[in-house]
Hints:
Layout: H1 10-23, H2 29-41, H3 45-50, H4 58-72, H5 77-81, E1 83-86, E2 89-92, H6 105-121, E3 134-138, H7 144-152, E4 157-162, H8 165-178, E5 184-188, E6 214-217
Parallel strand pairs: 3-4, 3-6, 4-5
Antiparallel strand pairs: 1-2
Helix pairs in contact: 1-2, 1-4, 2-4, 6-7
Amino acid sequence: MSKSESHPDVRTALKQGLAQLREAHVPSFTLAAELLLLHVLGRDRTWLYAHPEEQVSTTDADLFFKLIARRVAGEPTQHLTGKQEFWGLEFEVTPDVLIPRPETEHVIEVALDRLALRELRAGRKQTLTGEGLQVADIGTGSGCIAIALAKELPAAKIYATDISAEALAVAERNATRLGYSNRITFLESDLLSGFSSSLYQSPGTNHQSLFFDLVISNPPYIGRK
């Protein structure tokens, strides 16, 4: 890269990054270039297109094109920026967790619909706050499902499990940063095995029974082979 190219304006940097991604047949190359430049500059998309002639420092330009090269090499944009939006919230993502996908929001929608239908059938009002509900998110990963449900069901008690301690650490950081850590109990567990057997004692014993009104999960994709 020449000296002039190492100190481009916003428009030029974006155009060059976009061209490199397009040439490498990277999916959604325009969005990827925008997100990487926004990440490096610490700006939002409105600023990006309102200041096309703003100069990009040599340091920022170098970092941007290094990230472009890593995206060309196959690293996900979300791992390069360390974040992904889901259900109107921004989540930290690392290689230790799956990247929350837009279609996973449909899982949240179905869960809320099923709970609302249950309330309707029971003759209760449909304004669902989650009061009295206990929910388990199995294989929580980044915590996106558990946290989205905590947002929508402010009175529910939510448990989130994952077999990976590293994934749980990411989920707990997300819950803390987004303000839901006091609403979710995180357990390192293979599926439901982490719940104490004492929690399953029959009513009438000295132990509290734990029954889930909703068990929700979006496990990793499994190859056909």
